[in-house]
Amino acid sequence: MDRRTFLKTSAAAGAATFWGRTVFGAAEESPNYTVALVGTGWWGTNILREAIWSKRVKVVALCDVDESQLGKCAAEVQKLSGETPKHFKDFRQMLESAKPQIVICATPDHWHPLVTIAAVKAGAHVYVEKPISHTVKEGQAMVKAAREAGRTVVVGTHRRVSPHNVAGRDFIRSGKAGKIGMIKCYVNYPGGGPEQPEENAEPPKALDWDMWCGPGPLRPFNRKIHPKGFRQFLDYANGTTGDWGIHWLDQVLWIMDQKYPKSIYSTGGRPIKGKPVNDPQGQTTDAPDHQIAVYNFDGFDVYWEHRQFAGNQQDKSENVGCYFFGTNGVFHQGWKEGWTFYPSQGKKAPQHMDAQLHEPDQQNIRENWADFVAAIKENRRPISDIEAVHLSTNLALLGVLSMKLGRSIQWDGEKEQCVGDGEANTLLRREYRAPWKYPEV
Q1: Are the beta carbons of 13 and 365 closer than 8 angstroms?
Q2: Structure letter (DSSP) for residue 287
C-alpha cells in the first residue's frame, strides 16, 4: 500500500470512529429536536437536507420572504421526510408560533445577526451560516446573546470538521512542515470583461422586497441581487472576501491557534468590471473584482487574494485554498483535491490525502451538523463555535474595512477596536434602516 492510499484509508477509518455515535448511529434514534429554517434558498435547503438525513429532527417551520423559494424547499422536505412544516414570512412570528428548538439561519449576511439573536433569546439553538455578521459590532452582540442565553450556536465553517482539513491541521501542528513563516489564502475564479447593468424591475409578487432588504438599504429590486447574487453587493454582504475568504482565513486561525492579527492592509477594486452602477434604471454589483489583504501576526504573515478574471490552466486545478510556507516545505490545504505537502528536499516525494466530501454539495455539512447536535446534548461548545468564528469573520470584515479606507489599520484584538483610529472604528458598525434596531453589546 502506498502512502497516498494509506493516508486516505486511515483518515476514513478515523473519521468513521470519531463520528460514529453522532452520524452513523443517529439513524437508530427517533427525532428529538424540532427545527426551523430561515432562508429557504438552495444553500439553506442543503443544510436542512443534512439535518433531515441525520434522523434527529422534525421540521416544524420554514420561513422566507420569497414564497417561490419557500415552496421549492417545502417540496423537498415533503419528499425527504413526509413532513408538512408551517410556512412563515416573518421570523419573529415563526419563533413565537412554532417555538423550534433549533433554528437554521441561511439568510443573506445582513440578516444573520437579528435572526440569530432573536432565536437564542427565544430559547433556540442556532446553526448560522458564515460570515456570522456584516459588521464587527454585530458579531460581538451575537456572541454576547448566545452566551447570556446559554444556547449552542454553530457556524457553517464546516471545513473545521472535514476529515482532510482535520488531518492537515494535525500534520502542520506536528511540525512536519517546519516553522510556518507565511500563509497565502486565495480564491480565483475566471470572469469576463466590463459588467453590464441589469435593468431594475418590480419585485415578483411572491417576494416581500422591503422585508428582504430589512435593516440594510432599500435598493430597487434587481435580479443581480436576488436570488443568489447578494454577496457581490456591499450593502448586504462583503464580496468574495466575506463569502470565500472567511473559510480560508478561518483555517489560518484554527490551524495556527491564533485569535487576531496586529495590523491589516488591503487594496482592491474593479479595473475589469468597471465603475459600479446604481441608478433608477439599473444596477451592477459593487464589490471588488479583485482584492489583496495582508495580515500581520506575531511570527508570520497571511496574504489573501481573490480575483474574478484571468482564468487559466492553473485555475482548472485547485483554485481555492491555503498555502502554508514552512522551513520543511510547502503545505497546500485545499477543498476538492484534499491536501498535499511538497517537501523542500527535492528527492522526497510529496505526501497527499484525498478529500472526503458528500454529495450533492461536495461539502462536510453532515459532520458539522453531527457535532452541533452532539454539542447541544453534551452542553459543550461545538467545533465551529460562534465565538471562534466571530474572530475569523473579523479578519474578512477588517480586510474589507481597510480596502474602503485605502490604508492600513492597527488592530487591538482584545478590545476589538482599531488603535487610535476613530474613522476606522466608525466602520465597525453601521446604521440600520428603520424600524430595525442595531444590536448593541
Answers
A1: no
A2: S
Whether pTM > 0.90 for this model: the answer is: yes
Q: How far apart are CA 416 and CA 427, in angstroms?
A: 12
Beta strands in 173-281 (DSSP E): 180-188, 198-199, 263-269
C-alpha cell recorded at residue 439: 444590536
d(CA 184, CA 253): 13
Contact 411, 261 (CB under 8 A): yes
Backbone angles phi, psi at 317, to 5 degrees: -90, -140
Is-contact 311 290, C-beta < 8 A? Answer: no
Which distant-in-sequence residues (6+ apart) come within 8 Å of 422 by Cβ?
Answer: none
Percentage helix, strand, coil for the chain under 3-state DSSP, each rounded to 5:
40, 20, 40
Helices (H) and strands (E) in the chain, counts: 13, 18
The label of the residue with cell 483535491 reads 337
- Phi/psi of residue 88, nearest 5 degrees: -140, 150
Contact 353, 164 (CB under 8 A): yes
Q: Which residue has the cell 508570520?
A: 300
Question: Side by side, which strands form the sheet with 320-326?
Answer: 351-353, 339-343, 329-333, 320-326, 180-188, 300-307, 290-297, 263-269, 409-412, 417-418
Task: Please give the domain boundaries of the chain with CATH numbers for all domains.
Answer: 3-159 (3.40.50.720), 174-357+386-424 (3.30.360.10)
Residues 139-159: tens digit of each pLDDT: 999 999 999 999 999 999 999
Query: Does the structure show a pLDDT above 60 at 130?
Result: yes
Q: Provide DSSP, 325-369.
A: EETTEEEEE-STT-EEEEESSTTSPPEEE----BTTTTB-HHHHH
Assigned C-alpha cell, 418: 482599531
Q: Which of helix, strand or coil describes residue 10?
A: helix
Name the one residue in this structure whose C-alpha cell is 467545533.
383
Rounded Cα–Cα distance for residues 361 and 82 (Å): 22
Q: Between vectors from CA 414 to CA 265 and to CA 421, what angle results, nearest 5°?
A: 45
The grid coordinates listed for 103 are 433554528
With beta carbons less than 8 A apart as the criterion, state whether 96 and 36 touch.
no
Residue 347 confidence class, pLDDT cut points 50, 70, 90? confident
**Maximum distance among all Cα pairs of the chain, rounded to whole angstroms:** 66
- What CA–CA distance (Å, rounded) separates 290 from 268? 6
Can you give the pLDDT at residue 315? 57
Q: How confident is the model at residue 29 (pLDDT cuts 50, 70, 90)?
A: low
Among 152, 119, 115, 151, which residue's Cα sits nearest to residue 134?
115
Cell numbers for 373: 447536535
